[in-house]
Amino acid sequence: MYRQFALFIFALFLAPLCWAQVGERINRGQSPTTVIGPRNIPLYDGAQALLAGENEKGVALTHQGLEIAQGRREEEAALSNLCAGYIKLGKYQEALKYCDILLARNDKNWRGYNNRAVIYIQTKQWNKAEQDLIKGEELNPGASTMKVARSMYMDAVHPVRPEIEIDDRQNENTGDPQQP
Fold this sequence. Notes:
This protein is mainly alpha-helical and 180 residues long. It contains nine helices and no strands.
């Protein structure tokens, strides 16, 4: 049940990470251009497939998107989505590879720390998970996905025990639950 919950929550992490490049063109002195739709179709379609739970397809499309990525932002989006996609497939070593590549390129990418923390939580590497959660929370303290990852960590490391116990024994004479 916990693994299913974690995988469901992880689906919430994934978003289409394709950006229109209007702002970057303006900053480089070029005239503004309207971009309709995503520039990197396989990257966009891969993210959509991952969101739809089509994880194998999403990972394959994201690999294609990474091959044709134009610029650092698309590359980082692809790496982040590959990490997330492989987590959804339960392939934690492969996921870790892409998170590590992402963080080697940009150690300020909070999503990389978030995803890697989830890998460490799933593989019960509590100290590493805690370190990545701290780094990710420092970079983006209000991120809801960081809060979800922190909750997953707390549930795994410090589970809450129910304080209410239900007495479901039956009264022998009436068949009704015993009254206090």
